[in-house]
User: What shape does this take?
Amino acid sequence: MTDTLTDATALVTGASSGIGAATVEELASRGADVVLSARREGRLEELAAEVEDEHGVETVVHPTDVTDAAAVEALVEATVERFGGLDVVVNNAGLGREETTIEDLDLDAYRQMMDVNCDGMFYVARAAMAHLKESEGNLIFLGSMSGQYPRPASPVYAATKWWTRGLALSVQANAGPEGVGVTTINPTEVRTEFGDEDGESVADALGPDEAAEPADVARAIAFAAAQEAPNVVQELDLYRRDKFEGW
Assistant: This one.
């Protein structure tokens, strides 16, 4: 482990809000230059300016739709061209849609979750891998408790997170011999904007004593980002201490 990320280059997807925005702040506070990617360019620009002013690091804003493989390739190549390499990738972009039973789930909602939460994760990992092998860097996936236990209220979202964990564990097995560290961060509920596009967010539904804050998860991500070869924490579960009360 190292206590600093000075001179490291980090790429964060889903960086415009929630866990992604908190991660940008946390990595920058530890000295990393950060490339911010999401779809909301205005919010990315605001956050990048705040981070540069506060921490004196360099930032680049690169709006990207992670479901577009060519756009993801361009994002990674622009990062490497600007900074000369890539040390940390935080594969964070994801979404959930309202679910009931699988027979009633809207097919557009199903497709959107699969496109972002599975294809997007794959495209980012694929585009970054050669550069992470060169730097012996760290690839971090945002997983979930939903990818560890059955989730009757959200079976498709949960399935995408099981998929994420399976991909991450297998990529570690594949890329580990070349020095790449792959870690999945599995939080329980986090107070973010995350939720159905037209419905209540987690931040609206849960109070501070009922869920983690984005900064809590960002610190776990920063821990993973600072790992040095040859060891790696393959999964880091971030649960409230009272999570299983009453189970």
About this structure: Strands lie at 9-13, 33-37, 59-61, 88-91, 138-142, 181-187, 235-238. The two ends are 35 Å apart (CA to CA). The longest strand covers residues 181-187.
